[in-house]
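Hey,
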Amino acid sequence: MASIFAKPSISFAKGFITTTRLYFRTWQTDDIDLAMDLWGDPEVTRFIVAKGKMSEKEVRERLIQEMANQEKHSVQYWPCFLSSDDTFVGCCGIRPYDPSTNMYEIGFHLIPRYWGRGLAVEAARGVMAYAFKDLSVAGLFAGHHPGNIVSPHVLKKLGFQYTHDEFYAPTGLKHPSYRINRATYLQLTQK
């Protein structure tokens, strides 16, 4: 059986990620319409905030937070677009999780009409390659809402292993949590 990481079609143009079908860029202040399309959709946010939806003010705050992460840490949950027609599909990226161990958290949020097309896996593979190869992170952490039955399958496809349940303040719940370290990632990509 071929590795899920065999011969990835990933490149790094101007420090940003491109995959077979996607390209990434940073969030900009005038991206509020894109942010509203994503985080203003209760189908997207039902598993990431306790009340299940975000107000326009909360979406604006999320956008500002993503830009602040880029400014302070040079990472964010980058917006991603279809290379074929520049259509916005969502975001995928990393943010600091445990700076003392060089561990980052990976996450992805896609607009519902792009679910089920393998884009979350493709986007995450691109971000993982960038994180491990270009940023030399020690490991990646990921968590998901306990009611989300799709994310654990995506994370396992990416090589993450369940480690524990961890309290996630935005939902007020313990989320199943996963990790992958640099050595495991490099081993998976060598096959």
